[in-house]
Amino acid sequence: MSMTLPYREPLVPREPGERQIPEPPRRGEPGGPPCGICGGKTTSAVWSDDNWTLHPPVKGSLPGSVWLASRVHVDSFADLPDELAADFGRVAARVERAILSLGDVARVHLYRWGDGGAHFHVWFLPRPLGMVEAPGMMLPLWEDTLPNVPDEELAAAAERVAAQM
Ligand SMILES: [Zn+2]
Hints:
A hairpin with a 3-residue loop joins β1 and β2. Strands 1-2-3-5-4 form a five-stranded antiparallel β-sheet. The longest helix is centred in the middle third of the chain and has 19 residues, at 82-100. 24% of the residues lie in helices and 16% in strands. By secondary structure, it is an alpha+beta fold. It has helices at 82-100, 138-145, 151-163, and strands spanning 47-48, 52-55, 66-70, 105-111, 121-128. The site of zinc ion (ZN) has 6 residues, from loops.
């Protein structure tokens, strides 16, 4: 497998910008806009239990993608109560199995970025079977570059994931 950027080369490296310190506040942290997850501004959950909610994305290109959020408003793994941190492994395995059951999925990639909002959520992206140019960090770049599919298709695929949970 060789990593291939979803852009024609040559790309030209550039310098990073000036560092912004302090960084601008994120959604859901003091001084920032309200938390979209707590405020119900996101897609509705297709599955939930006592600890977690599972949501389809919007404006995406890979059906089967979902994001998992904690019910409690905490920022990252470091902030999860021990019980939830342990439970994350259980629920992540269930999400992974459910996405794999869709078929034509080689692997399920997990990404926790946390740069947009301060409410714990983890992305699960299916790497399409045979898409060997998109291993590792290449998959989110390809996801961003490929044409979006209708939100209804993303939601329907997420419902199929939820049905396997
Ligand atoms: Zn929140």
